[in-house]
Specification:
The complex is a heterodimer of chains A (396) and B (313).
Chain A lengths: L3 E9 L5 E10 L4 E5 L6 H9 L6 E6 L2 E2 L5 H4 L1 E4 L11 H11 L4 H15 L14 H13 L5 E5 L7 H18 L2 E6 L2 H7 L2 E6 L2 E6 L1 H6 L4 H6 L6 E10 L2 E6 L2 E4 L2 H6 L10 E6 L4 E2 L10 E11 L4 E6 L8 H7 L2 H9 L6 E6 L10 E6 L5 E3 L9
Parallel strand pairs in A: 3-8, 3-9, 6-7, 7-8
Antiparallel strand pairs in A: 1-2, 1-4, 4-5, 9-10, 11-12, 11-14, 12-13, 14-20, 15-19, 16-17, 16-19, 17-18
Helix pairs in contact in A: 3-4, 3-5, 4-5
Chain B lengths: L1 H6 L10 H9 L3 H30 L2 E4 L2 E5 L3 H8 L1 H32 L6 H7 L2 H4 L2 H11 L6 H6 L12 H26 L4 H9 L4 H29 L3 H6 L9 H11 L3 H25 L2 H4 L6
Antiparallel strand pairs in B: 1-2
Classes of the chains: A alpha+beta (396), B mainly alpha (313).
Bound molecules: adenosine-5'-diphosphate (ADP) and magnesium ion.
Adenosine-5'-diphosphate (ADP) binds next to helix 1 of chain A.
Chain lengths: 396, 313
């Protein structure tokens, strides 16, 4: 087990693509770090540089106390779980798991013991003699995990290991992998584009965009205090509502106005985003998480609520997602394009920009509003987020 | 649907729902239907392949003088052929040729295939040019080698500074020359068969092996070779059966002299040159048995799980 340190690590592919740019990150011994970002942002490349499958174009990569830039994968002593699992089809489950140990000339009985142990942890004991093709997808995934576990390596590297499983198995394996990692205490880098995995599995989450590290923090910190619009839009599901607004002072109080929506900015929000005061009379990107909306009763002051038309209602049992139509203009920066990670959705957003956008609000279950109904919605002003429109940086 | 009425008695109108009873009343099982569908190909195969084989076997039971059939001879032809030396000499020559040429073709073909499986500039051109020897008709490339191996002035003797070395006029060099010509022609073909196999092995298999600590040689022996088994089997079977029938190279380059009389050359000799069609047919039949035997041996030894299917499936 070992710490992993990236210092200005850069990857430039022969065709000129810079997939990872000046990555700086320090992963502690035994830590579980999630690498997350939209597809094509350089997650796999970063991971493969650690594995030694991709040459490092610049910077310094340290595993334990060795600079590994010029070491082969074999010399790095790391284990990797591939998205496709990459199981050897001609070997039994046991041979797949023991292959690395066999190559390392570990004692046969020792290999047997370690394979049995790993199979025990993963519930694979009765499948040890089968070939991979006679296993279900979930079992194959476990074999891939087992292959990593028996190695007792310096670090685990996992590249979207759950993305080929169905939703239910994914939820189960998510918990299991986190548990196993916790139990074994092996330093782990886990790549995913699924931000639920990102939020639930790791000690820390590193958000990558176009090869550049945006923020690396605990999931809660990322959620509460995103450093920029990209992180704000990427972390959280459903995503944060982002609108272009204007900060104004009305009767001695700060107010943010987006379209016809006007919300008072309470001291709580100003404390978290002190620089918002400097933006008086200027445009900002204002962020509102769906879960911070609520249905107001009569006692809620008017500067914390507004009226909107219901577009779509999703009653999920435990919660109620209501999409409401607003005239608040969307934030059309490259950052949001990246965060939305879907050309079609972005094009739709752009098209509708003039006429405002739809906000998603999450309410406690109850009587759902009807489509097209005008409803009153309130927002917990303390949870407003503010970012610079140009740079996307949080106004802290 | 109209035909169903003619092949099976029509059920009494309105007695049973038509969908439920139709399959039973027609009395054609899925298996029978399948046999019916493959029957045309089987019949064609029988006409084209089986008939000549059986007819040769039939002819081998007759005695001939010149081209005139003299009468039924029983197994006399077989006794003559199997107790004479020419047949066994030809068998040994053919086996030496087959083992040597297939072995070299396999090793060289594997080298080419591994090379072409790497990404490099000009890979497309290499793949196209490597096939040229395979595309040239064998009779022509045999003639070409014949000229190049000429004694004086001979291109190859000149190139190697061998003076008047007589390649095609001496044993064992005549056979060596023919093996060389065959390897030149067919190694690219083997390479392409193996390349097709190599390309079905996913790249991440090698990456997983690298992370597992496998050296390049270990990746070749523990990943490439086992996963290439089906392609290797197909290549070896094709080439072995093909080599056992070799005729054109010795016919053109040596006319079968100096230890290059293969089974097929011997057959041609008895049917055309001698002529003794009865003995020729006997040799044909024996050649067929040898080829069949080796083919069956092959499938039995290497290809069992590939042809019949892995028992674990
Ligand atoms: N072998 C390669 N050659 C050139 N560009 C590549 C190569 N592999 C990946 N890229 C590019 O590098 C970027 C990052 O890729 P990748 O690390 O696979 O992203 P992710 O895993 O986050 O989806 C992408 O723009 C991709 O097109
Ligand atoms: Mg990837």
């Amino acid at each position: 087990m070992a710490r992993i340190e990236f210092e200005d690590v850069t990857k430039r592919y022969p065709d000129g693509t810079v997939a990872v740019h000046d990555l700086n990150m320090s992963i502690a011994d035994g830590e579980f770090v999630i690498l997350v970002g939209p597809s094509g942002c350089g997650k796999s490349t970063a991971l493969r540089m650690v594995a030694g499958l991709e040459e490092i174009s610049g910077g310094k990569l340290t595993i334990g106390d060795r600079v590994v830039n010029d070491l082969t994968p074999k010399e790095r002593d790391i284990a990797m779980v591939f998205q496709s699992y990459a199981l050897y089809p001609h070997m039994s489950v046991a041979d797949n798991m023991g292959f690395a140990l066999k190559l390392a000339k570990v004692d046969k009985s020792e290999i047997n013991n370690r394979v049995k142990q790993a199979a025990d942890i993963l519930g694979l004991t009765e499948y040890l003699d089968r070939k991979p093709r006679a296993l279900s997808g979930g079992q194959r995934q476990r074999v891939a995990m087992g292959r990593a576990i028996v190695r007792q390596p310096q670090a685990f590297l996992m590249d979207e290991p759950l993305s080929n499983l169905d939703a239910k198995l994914r939820v189960q394996m998510r918990a299991e992998i986190a548990q196993i990692q916790n139990r074994l205490g092996v330093t782990t880098i886990y790549v995913t584009h699924d931000q639920v995995e990102a939020m639930t599995m790791g000690d820390r989450v590193a958000v990558l965009k176009k090869g550049e590290l945006q923020q690396v923090d605990s999931p809660q910190t990322l959620y509460d205090n995103p450093d920029n619009v990209f992180v704000a839009g990427f972390i959280g599901s459903p995503a944060m509502n982002l609108a272009e607004g204007r900060v104004e002072r009305v009767g001695g109080r700060l107010v943010v106005r987006a379209g016809s929506i006007a919300l008072g900015i309470p001291d709580g929000a100003v404390d978290r985003y002190p620089r918002v005061r400097d933006y008086e009379g200027r445009g900002v990107a204002v962020g509102m998480r769906p879960e911070h909306f609520y249905r107001p009763d009569g006692s809620v002051p008017p500067d914390q609520r507004f009226t909107v038309q219901v577009g779509l209602v999703e009653a999920l049992g435990s919660e109620l997602l209501v999409h409401v139509n607003t005239d608040a203009p969307p934030v059309l920066t490259e950052d949001t394009r990246q965060a939305i990670d879907d050309e079609a959705a972005f094009a739709e957003l752009e098209r509708s920009a003039a006429g405002g956008q739809s906000f998603t609000a999450r309410f406690d279950p109850g009587t759902p509003p009807r489509v097209n109904e005008q409803i009153e919605v309130a927002f917990r002003g303390d949870y407003l987020h503010f970012f610079d429109l140009e740079t996307g940086a949080a106004l802290r | 649907m109209a035909s169903s009425a003619s092949t099976a008695p029509a059920p009494p109108a309105g007695a049973v729902p038509p969908g439920g009873e139709r399959a039973k009343s027609r009395e054609i099982s899925v298996g029978a239907l399948a046999r019916l569908f493959v029957a045309p190909s089987i019949i064609t195969m029988a006409l084209v392949a089986l008939f000549p084989i059986l007819y040769a076997a039939y002819l081998s039971l007759f005695e001939y003088r010149g081209r005139q059939q003299q009468g039924f001879a029983g197994l006399d032809n077989y006794v003559d052929v199997l107790t004479g030396g020419r047949f066994w000499d030809a068998v040994i020559t053919t086996l030496i040729f087959t083992v040597a040429s297939v072995a070299f073709e396999f090793v060289i073909g594997m080298g080419f295939a591994l090379l072409m499986n790497q990404a490099f500039v000009g890979r497309g051109v290499t793949r196209a040019t490597i096939l040229i020897p395979w595309v040239i008709p064998t009779v022509i490339s045999a003639q070409m080698w014949f000229f190049m191996l000429n004694v004086n002035p001979g291109f190859i003797n000149n190139l190697l500074g061998l003076g008047g070395f007589n390649w095609l006029g001496s044993e064992p060099w005549a056979l060596v020359s023919i093996i060389l010509a065959d390897v030149w022609k067919t190694a690219p073909f083997v390479a392409l068969l193996l390349l097709a196999g190599l390309q079905t092995i996913p790249e991440d298999m090698y990456e997983a092996a690298r992370v597992d600590g496998a050296t390049a040689w270990q990746r070749f022996t523990r990943i490439t070779l086992p996963l290439l088994k089906p392609a290797i089997f197909v290549a070896l079977l094709f080439r072995t059966v093909d080599s056992l029938r070799i005729f054109d190279l010795p016919a053109v380059m040596t006319g079968g002299s100096n230890g290059t009389t293969t089974l097929s050359v011997l057959v041609q000799r008895f049917i055309v040159a001698e002529p003794n069609p009865g003995v020729g047919a006997t040799l044909s039949t024996l050649t067929f048995v040898v080829v069949l035997g080796i083919g069956v041996l092959f499938v039995g030894l290497i290809g069992r799980d590939l042809v019949i299917g892995d028992p674990e499936d």
